[in-house]
Protein 1
Amino acid sequence: MLETVLEVIAEVKDRIRHADRISLFLDFDGTLVPIEADPQSPRLDPATMDTLQTLSNQESLLTTIISGRAIEDLYARIRLKGLIYAGNHGREIFGRNLRFVEPAAFARQKQLELLCDEIRTKLRPVDGVLVEFKGLTASVHYRRATKSCRAEIEAAVRAAVACSGGGLHMNPGRKVFEIVPGTGWHKGEAVRWINNRLGEHHTLTIYLGDDISDEYAFSLLQDAITIKVGSTRVTCAKYRLPDPPAVHEFLLWLAIQKTLRQSRA
């Protein structure tokens, strides 16, 4: 059973209120915005945008948006200063004087682009498939395809990756197959990198995400407040919230708590 916002707050409020510094990580699709059939459609609603702006203004709170989207795409959907943006599952990072591109992923860009061309050709007869090359990773979206085609799509992607010359892996997601460089870098490593670079390793880390790729962070961040968004039964996260509106309620409460603390300081 999914926990309500009030239940999660009751569990974590003491840790948050007593934390001098907080490093907050938020996935985008499925966490800040609902999953949509067209991956180009999601946009933040004004209320969530206002809450993120309030969070970004807190001196004791650092906010990172971490997503499978390319970093230019991710930034274009938010465009708030004071945030850190981590795209391609944390393989590219910028903001707050940080700039990082994972070297092994960068070196495989041409190989990945050619692979995407091959997969597009193989899956052209299948309606509802979108192959998205994102520079350092790729996504094969099949949300608009019929259920009967899923096995055919997966088999085609797996075969193409297997014959691509090595160094690339396919990971399943929510109605998507992610193709990523097999470098051992993932969202959890990106969280650790950001915290270390900014001296945030002694602060309270909070991470909210909905997808399989977020499980890397959940499992790595043993001392963090980790929150799974959505109805998936199996997760390494400590807490759950049902959907993006519940995430916004939690973030609004967090913003109020940090604003009150800042005003008293």
Protein 2
Amino acid sequence: MTILKKYTYQQYYTFFICGVIIGVFFSPAINSISNAALILTWLIEGKFQEKWSTLKKSKSFWALLSVFAIHIIGLLYTENFEYALKDLKIKLPILLLPIVFASSISLSKKQFERILEILILTAFVSSLYAFYIYIRFYGNEIKELREISTIISHIRLSLMNAIASFAAFYLIFTKKENLISIRNILLLSIGIWLFIFNGILGARMGILIYFVMAALFAFFLIYTLRKWWLTISLILAVIALPVVTYLSIPSVKIRVDEIKYELNNYQHGGDPSGQSIAQRFVFWKIAIDIFKTSPVIGIGTGDVKDAYTAYYDAHPTIIQEKFQHRAHNQYLTILFTFGVIGFIIFMYGIISPMFFEKKYFDYFYVIFLISFLLSMTMEDTIETQAGVTFYAFFNALFLYARPKNIEA
């Protein structure tokens, strides 16, 4: 405890949480170091008997561990043990971060707000950097909009931008006094800019989630402020938002038109190779075919890549070789990796903590969970280090670290 003498555990805890947020946006190295520092600080603090007592009583903690546990069980019948161990290493935050957050004291309201401000500021700076890349290189070195996100997946960036945007709106409307202030004008401007930037980025999932969050935020304000004129205004605004976005942001209209073309082309037997939406139908069909080979317990933790490679070798003309990827759908990946039994355990581990911790009306936890659940329909979210951190970190942060004595 002497190492932590100069500052309190909570101060170190808050500092390294901010470090993880900055790392997620800007640097895998900072992300890894901050995660390691969080765990190390937890170990140095000690109080293991007290922490173990807290964890034993936490039903949500044990539910969360089931997500990691199915990957351990999957080792028993995997054929590619080397790849399985590599996969487990990537997914370690799913095991370790709930231990740290669930057994630590909740943050104060002030500390939680500082973390939100770091999230908002980091998302803003990240978007400005990506916008510079867009202005400077798009059309020359960079040919696709997604490439302006140079550090993390454009889908994940758009999700975090959406969370940061609605964190900004939250900070505005939860301050009862001085609603019109420089601080709130800045927060509002950043929140709106992040939405516009998501449109520029052209991440369809991020834009969809933004609309869903807008509806949730409208209900939050209606519930909080309880004024009929606000209710009508917000409902109209939520209905109008997708239309205005489609008409006013060119890249959004381009993306919608691309989806229409891809679907029409695929329905008429066209080659789906290189078409973001259409080729996913091919990936999903392959996933279902692999699932049918072992529907009860799946193929095992380390055999996902090998199963896809074998399928493409057996069906070389199904899609061009350079576009032969995995499922791009986390639900299907879990289904064919661990079978129906593993899939049920996985969904229990993801959803039940919300009920155990009574977070079903919690503003931040709900918008995070919906973002995560939707993201898994279009990508293998927890198959990469960045995706695992997004899930394990923000899930634990909003589930355990948020002060329990503040509304919504």
